[in-house]
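Self-study notes.
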Amino acid sequence: MADKEKCVYVNAIIVLLTAQICASVTGTGLRNLSLSIKPPWVRRGQEAQLHCQYEMEGAPLYSVKWYRGTLEFYRYSPFENPPAKIFPFTGIKVDMTVSNATHVTLRNVGFNLSGNFTCEVTADAPSFYTGVATNVLTVVELPHSPPTLWTEHTKYDPGDILRANCSTPPSKPGATITFLLNSMTVGTESTVLHPTHDNLHWASRDLIIQLLPSHYSTGQLILRCLAEVGTIYSEVSQAPLESSRKEPIPERVTSPNGAATLTGSIETRRQQLFLIIMGILVILTVIHSYQPNSLIR
């Protein structure tokens, strides 16, 4: 009896080793598993398409299970009747007419679906190998209009303080705001997000900057507000800023003692012309009053 038990034990080991050798030679029956979500950023109320791509290497497919987080919501088993099955999940609406062993289409997605989605693929006998692929879906709500740009004044000169504000309609996630003065990014303040009653956020940002002559190098001054939500939303509002001076704006030069003077101004030219005229008058007066001794009788 003991010899028979030993024989059975040895045969079992041989079978297991043979199965492992066959698996190592023929492969697992599953490879190149990946999950893509299109679009990765989807607007609330729109649809999302999930594509689970894999190669079975000749092994039959046992099942494909779909998860949002850790909860299964859809399963495809080709040997069952019907092959497709839906599990209850709040907010998930699977379109059964276009969902199968590799694709799942979700209709009318809501914010609660943002997060990890997983497809779990299992090969049939003899390997029953299981592979898993995960990707992220983000559900968004975009601003319904471009940003609103406000400036304290409409005319500014070098040395003036420019105060401005830019705000966006509510969105999820909240927008990021960037200020551009002509083509240069300006401002050190951060974008502030303000919550709304429906779980959205409207964004705002302030700008306080002193204008320099270099800002007018192109002959005009244009302030722009750029609002962005990820890579799917980008809108710009702009405000041309005029100068109250009709003449060209002179460069401001700082003297060594710290005093600021204006070069090329009309007042400086008047002073120079006055000194020249006074010099000419002094010379004419001296010449007129000079009488040589030889002419005196």
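Second protein, same conventions, sequence then structure:
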Amino acid sequence: MPNDRVVRSYFSKKETGVVVKRLFLILSLTLLAREAHAAPEIHKFSAAELKKKLTTIQYNVTQEDGTEYPYKNEYWDNHKDGIYVDIVSGQPLFSSLDKYDSGTGWPSFTRPLKNANLVEKTDRSLLGTRTEVRSKFANSHLGHVFDDGPKPTGLRYCMNSAAMRFIPKSDLVKEGYGEYAALFDQPKK
């Protein structure tokens, strides 16, 4: 017959296992619910709808993998606080806090707001190989990422202004991006 200490130890371990399993289940369900909530309802536009919605350069860049001219685009020299979103879907892409002057004439960033909002693909369309950056939900061509950026990431996300829309800090809540407003309340580095 097992003694009382052995019996208590057995049931204690068994109860701990049940509690851990329940906590894991609750955590898993919570994360799934957050992920489902975070994935926006994205309307898939037809080519005809996109041609009506976008300018010629926006359509060329986002749908035909085009590139706009350096220094002759809307955001290369924008120094206002805010975020940049996909021109097609409105998906949040980059923050002005991570924007820097790369000397290329295109808006450049050290990192995206959320890695999960971007898709990277190998691009062999020119001499050599590059890494293309596309938006996850609308599959818009945004630009390219290179490993010659500044610290802390060493990355340069070289984007086309025509693929993005800038939301100023003052309009984040009004435009439905209030969750990003707190980024600009912190002291600048």
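Instructor comment on the second fold: The two ends are 67 Å apart (CA to CA).
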